[in-house]
Amino acid sequence: MRRAALAGLLLAGAPLAGVWGHGINGHVHVTGWAAEAQPAGSALAALFADPLLKNTVLIAAAFPDSGYAVDHPYGEAAHWEPFTEAHVAFVRDTYGPDYASVEAQQQVAFLIGTACHGLQDELFDSLFLLQIREKDGRGQEEADPGTDAFLQVDGHLRFFPEVWLPAEALVQVFAARGIEVSTNTMERGLRLVSSVVINGREHTAPIHDAQYRPLLPWASTHYVDPTVPGSIAAEIPATAAYQRALWARLHGEFPVADLVVHGWPGARRLRSVRADTVDSWISLVFGAGVTKGSLNDATVRLLDPQGAPVPVTVQGTRWGGSPTDSSRLVILRPTVDLLPDTTYTVRLEPGVTLIDGTTLEVPWETTFQTPCADPEAAGCADEAPPAFPPPPPPDAGVEVDQGAPDGALPDAGPTDAGSPDAGRPDAAAADGSLADLGGVTDGGADAAAPVAGVGGGADGCASTGGPSGGFGWAALLLAGLSGRRRRRARGAPGRPR
Ligand SMILES: [Zn+2]
Q1: How far is the CA of 31 from the centre of ligand 1 (A)?
Q2: How far is the CA of 61 from the centre of ligand 1 (A)?
Q3: How far apart, in whole angstroms, are the C-alpha atoms of residue 299 and residue 262?
Q4: Residue-range domain boundaries for the chain
Q5: CA 193 / ligand 1 centre spacing (Å)
Q6: Beta strands 326-334 and 364-369: pairing type?
Q7: How far, in Å, is the centroid of ligand 1 from the Cα of 56?
Q8: Chain Cα centroid distance, residue 12
Q9: What's the CA-to-centroid distance between 450 and ligand 1, angstroms?
Q10: CA 332 vs CA 64, 342, 465: distances in Å
Q11: Domain 256-369 falls in which CATH fold?
């Protein structure tokens, strides 16, 4: 599909809007900004300083939604921690513990990017979307395409990765999760995402911006606000912390005591003491999947300065209805107003359980402060939030940018790196050309097996096979891409519409 044809389809009213979830360019960029935020001198900073591996983590951040593009359940599965857990086990067993080869490092980078996408969807959907509902009276239909369009129109986008995926390895990881998928299907899905969303953004963004900015006056100005939980900007430090947790898990060094890797309000003051607004919610981000059933009033508590419990509603991720489903966050929703300028404690009690069965054995706690009744009073001001977009690190080196002569990477296709140098910029011609969908063929042999369940539970998000034969735009626009919303709506009784 050529850009002009894509634009023609969109201008003709093809129903592309609202079908991509948390915008894919948003996923790519939050993941990239988080990668650049790793501490200088750290192993992760060194990993992402390599343009090849930077490209790998960026394109991997687009990968989970590629399943929707071809209406195959591998995409939904790739969003959740049960897949990530299997992915970690595969990469650790196959390439660990030192990950010395380029091939091993590509596997690590792809795992991290894929997992970051799932975390970001959980944060965006469970926190930011509910704020949009409260402030703008809108939801996913507007916010998903809207935020990606705002990022483009507001001039924040600078990562445009080339297509690459460790297809053979992924086939094995999906098989471990009971999902049969071919390398061709995954390649086709990712190329569609690349062509339509990443390389087609200049055509889609102005249309979506004009359509959704008037409907989202609060969201269109706060998606870049680092102080708003779940916003695009706020996802960056959470994603960076999750990347470090994944790195630790790949090295077998992630004790359950380190489970909480980020949280809101963190070091800042809570945004409101009033129980009737999302602004009073407190949330913690986990570095590994926790069973939703283990997050309850007994294991997650809010305590006042005297240690007395404050009544809260405890909830995990927004999607999935089974106690065995996984969650990478927990939200405490006070059901009574809190006191201003007061220090509260959030406490996790033994019994919080990871999806691998590991259980928190000692209490974990953190504190936060509520806002002052008079925010202007002495000592009540918060520090200035970090800048958005984050400036690139001074030693970032070559940016991965479509068409940049020095940064262009070869389109390595769906194969695993066959040699340490396979896919490296100096190992093949790098023309930076757009992916040509016409060259992608349909394997046609993979049956779509039922998915084990959203988050690994049993509430079922099974789907039947993807489109057969050659790729068709009608199939993409009319069937495949609506899958995410349809599947996720199941087992989500709290869904607003
Ligand atoms: Zn997604």
Answers
A1: 13
A2: 9
A3: 18
A4: 3-226+391-489, 256-369
A5: 12
A6: unpaired
A7: 17
A8: 31
A9: 19
A10: 28, 17, 39
A11: Immunoglobulin-like (2.60.40)
Q: What is the pLDDT along the chain (497 residues), one digit of tens a residue?
A: 333 333 333 333 333 333 445 799 999 999 999 999 999 999 999 999 999 999 999 999 999 999 999 999 999 999 999 999 999 999 999 999 999 999 999 999 999 999 999 999 999 999 999 999 999 999 999 999 999 999 999 999 999 999 999 999 999 999 999 999 999 999 999 999 999 999 999 999 999 999 999 999 999 999 999 999 999 999 999 999 999 999 999 999 999 999 999 999 999 999 999 999 999 999 999 999 999 999 999 999 999 999 999 999 999 998 888 999 999 999 999 999 999 999 999 999 999 999 999 999 999 999 999 999 998 899 998 888 989 999 888 765 444 443 333 333 333 333 343 333 333 333 332 222 222 222 222 333 333 333 333 343 322 222 222 222 223 333 333 333 333 433 343 333 222 22
CA of 69 to the centre of ligand 1 (A): 11
Matching residue, tokens 């349809």: 486
Output the CA 461–ligand 1 centroid distance in Å.
14
β-pairing verdict for 343-348 and 326-334: unpaired
- Classified as helix, coil or strand, 126 is helix
